[in-house]
Write a structure and sequence with these properties.
heterodimer, A: Aldehyde Dehydrogenase, Chain A, domain 1, 3-stranded antiparallel beta sheet, about 20% strand, B: alpha/beta, Aldehyde Dehydrogenase, Chain A, domain 1, Aldehyde Dehydrogenase, Chain A, domain 2, 3 domains, 20 strands, about 40% helix
Chain lengths: ~280, ~525
């Protein structure tokens, strides 16, 4: 009989500023294998303080990330697709164990997750031309409108969010130069480890993507009220929560984006850009 | 120029640059001091720094004794059995032999492209087409140094340029267009668009692989298949690119490469089963192609010659402008369709500017293109070399004030030409009117912006123009009045896959790059 290898399970922690800390609160919640009582992992139940730390990291990363050339951001997003391909089996295993997907369905979910990285890699240096324009103003002025990232975005996923929805949502936010703090609630939190490893090994600057696990009802008010957060992406169909976030975000006029209609689409980028119109005189 | 992080996940550009020959420099500087200090002299002591040779190794390139035609995913013999040599213009040594494609070979290539279009490529989704282009971009990044050295060997351009400009831009063009493949509908919302079919593309020798990328990448992204003819003097990097296609798993026949001279190109553009022709090259040949395709429904884009004006106003940052003008005309030995070959100086600063320009070109290093310190490499062919010499002689006859660096020593072998200029040139000079395509600048002066604009527009071409001024509104005013497809303000010769490029008037029509560059490869239903 072959020697028996006792598997070393991966500890799943948070991903803040390029590091993998445990929640400062010391709290956790258990996740079981889908459809059974068997233990799979303990996930961190991130606190308000963890969220604030993550926003600080996202804010610090913003200046460098939004100044990168669009081409550079495109290449980094494409690198994520490469890394994701390399971790295909790990992703599939997590999806099978925790969401009860068949292996085929899990592999398809990984395909779609990779598609999302590639799709938004392609858009990083193109959305500006699709949405930007020269304004034919009546007078001796050169006038054009260019899109720019809004800043720090908080992304609230749903317990039923799929892997590809998560990669699409995050890619759409960062491809234009935003940085993001995302909550992967409930069982989706088990995807944090392989996802964070993809981000950590793609030459993405630390802090551009920050991932938390925990409870929507506990953290949603913070997403809404934090003054350094410029926009919130809400990927949960809970209408009441959406309304609550809009009210909480009114204080700093937060942009609150409803769930994506499709994974791949220009609109997912445009939810998180601002338009800048530049006027310049024309004359000797 | 997009030079940042092009190979961020692959080889770092310029890594092999030795940390300069510092000890050597110090030693030589000391030697120079020792000679000059003991002699009491009224003249200031000048240190003469010489660069130690810093040669890029050519070992990375493995050339085959001869190359066939790339048709339907295979290297095949030409039906004529004829081959012709391709030469390293820096040494005049034969590098290898290239197949000469006949009309019959071109027909095979077009058939292969048609089959690939109908059976494979037009049936793939944009996402899948994009996937192949991304792979190609990545492999080019991984093999960047090999491509750069080969380009320098075959073309004669300095390794500094092939390594830092040509090849990174090649990868960028494939990467950029890869991303468009599944977003074409977003680029033209509300319009029903489709691919064209088989595209015949003929490209020049000045940026061999870059022009191949400009042509192939948008064509494939938009769903077409390709037959490409590289220039007869610079086919090697396009042939090496076929290895990249293989490694990327590109289906056979999607890109076919036929080598040869003018007759091969003519056979390609006049082939009845080619749906679109894209040509970059001389205005003369462009007009022939226009005539040859006139009685067909072929779509056509032409990127032709230029005689671009470079205007320097008195309120410009002069030292920066000198650098810009030097880059504008002497980049790539002046073999640039958009070269700023007509310098227009505001009269008040003309004398100062010309003195600065003289000092600057005295320092330009002409020589071995594989030397990392070389600024100007070899003229690509004997034919071009002799043409430049002929035109320089003509310029002297017509009475221009000629200047070339006296101290520059050219290598004994190879086709090398010093950077030079003619001052006090009027619009009626031959040199002001025809494209020289070499390191030769003409200089004239103007007194008002209106005069500068009039002189700049006084040409049958309209590819590019440069403006130097620290006053933004003046730049915009002049830019809006110039009749040229690309205007560079306080910079020159900048290229990016997202920036449309192309000319007005006899510089051709159609644009390459950006959203506008997709249109020539699509048809509206």
């Amino acid at each position: 009989m072959a020697s028996h290898h006792l598997k070393v399970p991966k500890t799943i922690k948070l991903f803040i500023g390029g590091e993998f800390p445990r929640t400062e609160s010391g709290r956790s919640f258990p996740v079981v294998r889908h459809g059974t009582d068997a233990h799979f992992a303990h996930l961190c139940r991130a606190s308000r303080k963890d969220f604030r730390n993550a926003v600080a990291a996202a804010k610090a990363a913003l200046a460098s990330w939004e100044r990168r050339t669009a081409y550079n951001r495109a290449q980094i997003l494409y690198r994520m697709a490469e890394m994701c391909e390399g971790k295909r089996d790990e992703f599939a295993e997590v999806l099978c164990y925790t969401q009860g997907l068949s292996n085929d369905a899990a592999q398809k979910a990984v395909d779609a997750a990779i598609d999302a990285f590639v799709y938004y890699a392609g858009y990083a240096d193109k959305y500006q031309q699709v949405i930007g324009n020269l304004n034919p103003v009546s007078g001796p002025h050169l006038c054009f409108t260019a899109a720019e990232p809004v800043g720090v975005v908080a992304a609230l996923f749903d317990e039923n969010s799929t892997l590809d929805e998560i990669t699409a949502g995050l890619s759409a936010i960062i491809c234009s130069g935003n940085t993001v703090v995302a909550l992967l609630p409930g069982v989706t939190g088990t995807l944090l480890a392989p996802l964070a490893e993809v981000f950590a090994t793609s030459d993405l600057p630390k802090g551009v993507v920050n991932l938390l696990t925990g409870d929507v009802s506990e953290l949603a008010p913070q997403f809404g009220s934090h003054m350094e957060v410029q926009a919130v992406s809400v990927q949960t169909k809970n209408e009441a929560l959406l309304a609550e976030l809009k009210i909480a975000g009114a204080e700093n006029l937060k942009r609150v984006a409803p769930p994506m209609q499709t994974n791949l689409g220009l609109n997912n980028i445009l939810q998180f850009v601002e338009y800048k119109t530049v006027w310049h005189p024309v004359g000797y | 120029m997009r030079t940042t992080d092009l190979t961020r996940t692959g080889t770092r550009q310029g890594k092999n640059n030795k940390p300069a020959a510092k000890p050597m420099l110090v030693k030589r500087a000391k030697a120079a001091l020792n000679i000059e200090t003991p002699t009491p002299s009224a003249r200031p002591v000048t240190l003469s720094f010489e660069y130690a040779p810093s040669l890029e190794s050519a070992d990375i390139v493995k050339l085959k004794p001869r190359y066939g035609l790339y048709i339907d995913g295979k290297m095949v013999e030409p039906s004529s059995g004829r081959y012709f040599p391709t030469v390293n213009p820096a040494t005049e040594a034969v590098l290898t032999e290239i197949a000469e494609a006949t009309e019959k070979d071109v027909d095979r290539a077009v058939q292969a492209a048609r089959k690939a279009y109908e059976k494979v490529w037009s049936k793939l989704s944009g996402r899948e087409r994009g996937r192949y282009l991304f792979r190609i971009a990545r492999i080019i990044q991984e093999r960047a140094r090999e491509f750069a050295v080969l380009e320098t060997l075959d073309n004669g351009k300095p390794i500094r340029e092939s390594r830092d400009i040509d090849i990174p831009l090649v990868a960028a063009h494939f990467f950029y267009h890869a991303g468009w493949a599944d977003k074409l509908q977003d680029a033209f919302p509300g319009r029903e668009i489709s691919s064209l079919g088989v595209v015949g593309q003929v490209i020049p020798w000045n940026f061999p692989l870059l022009m191949a990328a400009w042509k192939i990448a948008p064509a494939l992204a938009c769903g077409n298949t390709v037959v490409l003819k590289p220039a007869e003097t610079t086919p090697l990097t396009a042939l090496l690119l076929t290895e990249v296609f293989e490694e990327a798993g590109l289906p056979p026949g999607v890109v076919n490469i036929v080598t040869g001279a003018g007759a091969t190109g003519a056979a390609l553009v006049s082939h009845p089963d080619v749906d679109k022709v894209a040509f970059t090259g001389s205005t003369e040949v462009g007009k022939e192609i226009l005539e040859a395709t006139a009685k067909t429904n072929k779509k056509l884009t032409l990127e032709l010659g230029g005689k671009s004006a470079h205007i320097v106003f008195e309120d410009a940052a002069l030292d920066q402008a000198v650098e810009g003008v030097v880059n504008g005309i002497y980049f790539n030995q002046g073999h640039v369709c958009c070269a700023g070959s007509r310098l227009l100086l505001e009269e008040s600063i003309a004398e100062t500017f010309i003195e600065k320009l003289k000092k600057r070109i005295d320092k330009i290093r002409v020589g071995n293109p594989l030397d990392k310190n070389t600024d100007i490499g070899a003229i690509n062919s004997k034919r071009e070399f002799e043409k430049i010499q002929r035109l320089v002689a003509l310029g002297k006859e017509e009475g221009g004030e000629f200047y070339e660096p006296a101290g520059t020593v050219l290598p004994a072998k190879g086709y090398f030409h010093k950077p030079c200029f003619f001052a006090n040139v009027s619009s009626s000079f031959t040199l002001s009117r025809i494209e020289i395509f070499g390191p030769v600048l003409t200089i004239s002066t103007f007194r008002t912006p209106q005069e500068a604009i009039m002189k700049a527009n006084d040409t049958s071409y309209g590819l590019a123009a440069g403006i130097w001024s620290e006053k933004g509104s003046k730049i915009q005013k002049v830019a809006s009045a110039l009749k040229a497809g690309v205007i560079w303000a306080n910079t020159y010769n900048k290229f990016d896959p997202s920036a449309p490029f192309g000319g007005y008037f006899e510089s051709g029509f159609g644009r390459e790059g950006g959203r506008h560059g997709l249109l020539p490869y699509l048809e509206e239903k």
